[in-house]
Write a structure and sequence with these properties.
424 residues, FAD/NAD(P)-binding domain, D-Amino Acid Oxidase, Chain A, domain 2, 2 domains, eight-stranded mixed β-sheet, 12 helices, binds flavin-adenine dinucleotide
Length: 424
């Protein structure tokens, strides 16, 4: 702990005499925090990033086994990573472009499906699928060469907000003072709680079981998703080298059961889905990772910035919002928070300090719509497909078929999934 990482100029939090004021502190070492800290440093701001996991080097992914955490990255994420000069540095042989998405209803009828296609939408791809480690490793490499960025492997225990900024007290002792604090400290955000920002939380009483599979048929660069009777959702996302990444959202009890299955038991379970549709699409499957489960919930912070009287903090990523992974958008949304914040701070008027209320309000206002829309859509879809009544069943399956026939609605859905960000 308290180990300075990846930069020769470091604050030693054990020695308060060495503690000095900085412009911004980013709390959190997930992809959102790392991208934000890098972007702020690239703007020329003296930036410190603090998180316990920053002491652990994220290895560059190698070999035939893909990592456990796989994400769908939207074009808005690609644009931010390109802006941060990360995208071209990624190993592109470990990224899979998605050109088609096929979403099936739970009645098993042929017409209950929605097909979204990059070709029809006039774009090269709808998304990319890749490993968390691929992005994190490259962000770590970039941080090493950024002399405005200091990283500290520690936890923030307490934050005191005063008229001039924030004092962050670290677990190892010592404190850092920053004009602005960006809380990227995840769904349980201790910063959000310390400064008294309330939040709504709802458990879906589900977990997502993730695993990677080798398949014998080509996946045709297609992401498949099946809504199943009873509320389970199974997604098979394409990966390079005839692999797919599975995300199976199911009850917590069933998830625990799935984690105990061996290869042949897994194949039995998968073949029972939608009359063997998975096998028909992808051929024979061989497990290529250790399955893991993640509990699913919805969280929304009441505010994305500190209290009106003295806002010196902005929330980004899961600290501000958590959603069901059925649309694969949580991280993408968090990275759009980063893009908007960087844009606002880079264009700020010279008389405004970093934690100026007007700036922070601009950030909050610009992020409300995107966040509310995605939280609403994912939540309503999840609930619509969990409902057991005949009317709900008919409505959802008929809805999929209907949307599939409307080029206009499909185009709007694709625009929402691609995400919009601007750097000017
Ligand atoms: C099964 C599943 C599949 C998903 N698939 C997708 C997908 O395909 N596409 C997509 O866009 N999103 C997806 N998501 C959502 C995505 O995983 C999250 O939105 C994203 O990881 C959030 O990143 P973050 O950096 O905000 O938070 P986190 O990754 O949770 O990072 C939080 C950081 O804060 C640090 N921290 C915590 N407390 C402190 C403290 N006191 N002091 C200092 N640091 C602290 C932690 O150590 C950590 O470094 C999925 C989620 C699940 C569960």
């Amino acid at each position: 702990m308290a180990e300075a990482h990846s930069n020769p100029r470091s604050i030693n939090p054990r020695n308060p005499s060495q503690t000095r004021p900085v412009d911004v502190v980013v709390v959190g070492g997930g992809i959102v925090g790392k991208a934000c800290a890098l972007g702020l440093a690239q703007l020329g701001l003296n930036t410190v990033e603090i998180a316990p996991d920053l002491g652990l080097a994220v290895p560059s992914p190698q070999g035939h086994q893909w990592g456990q955490r796989i994400y769908a990255f939207s074009p808005s994420t690609q644009k931010l990573l390109a802006h941060l000069q990360i995208w071209d540095a990624l190993d592109h042989s470990r990224l899979q472009a998605v050109r088609d998405m096929r979403i099936y209803g739970d009645r098993g009828e042929k017409n209950d499906q929605l097909h979204l296609s990059a070709f029809e939408a006039g774009t090269h791809q709808l998304a990319w699928i890749g490993e968390s480690n691929l992005i994190e490793h490259t962000l770590d490499q970039a941080a090493r060469f950024q002399n405005k960025l200091e990283r500290i492997a520690d936890a923030v225990e307490k934050i005191d907000v005063d008229a001039n900024g924030n004092t962050l007290h670290l677990k190892s002792g010592g404190a850092i003072h920053a004009q602005l604090v960006i809380a990227a400290d995840g769904a349980n955000s201790p910063i959000r709680d310390s400064i008294g920002i309330s939040f709504s939380e709802e458990s879906y009483l589900q977990s997502a079981v993730v695993a990677n599979w080798m398949c014998t048929y080509p996946h045709l660069e297609t992401a498949f998703q099946w809504f199943l009777p009873g509320g389970d959702i199974v997604a098979m996302l394409p990966l390079p080298n005839k692999q797919v990444s599975m995300v199976w959202s199911t009850s917590t009890e069933h998830a625990a059961e799935l984690l105990k299955l061996n290869q042949s038991q897994w194949l039995d379970r998968l073949s029972s889905i939608a009359n063997g549709a998975i096998e028909k699409q992808l051929g024979e499957l061989t497990l290529n990772s250790t399955p893991a489960a993640f509990p699913l919930r919805k969280i929304r912070a009441a505010r994305f910035i500190g209290p009106e009287a003295n806002p010196k903090v902005a929330l980004i990523g899961d600290a501000a919002h958590v959603m069901h992974p059925l649309a694969g958008q949580g991280l993408n949304l968090g990275l759009r928070d980063v893009a908007v914040l960087l844009n606002i701070l880079s264009k700020r008027e010279s008389f405004r300090p970093l934690s100026d209320l007007t700036l922070l309000r601009r950030y909050e206002r610009q992020r409300q719509g995107d966040t509310s829309a995605l939280l609403w859509v994912t939540d309503k879809l999840k609930k619509l497909f969990s409902g057991g009544s005949n009317t709900e069943k008919q409505l959802r399956n008929w809805g999929l078929g209907l949307v599939n026939k409307s080029h206009f609605i499909k185009q709007r859905l694709i625009e929402r999934a691609l995400g919009e960000i601007d750097f000017d």
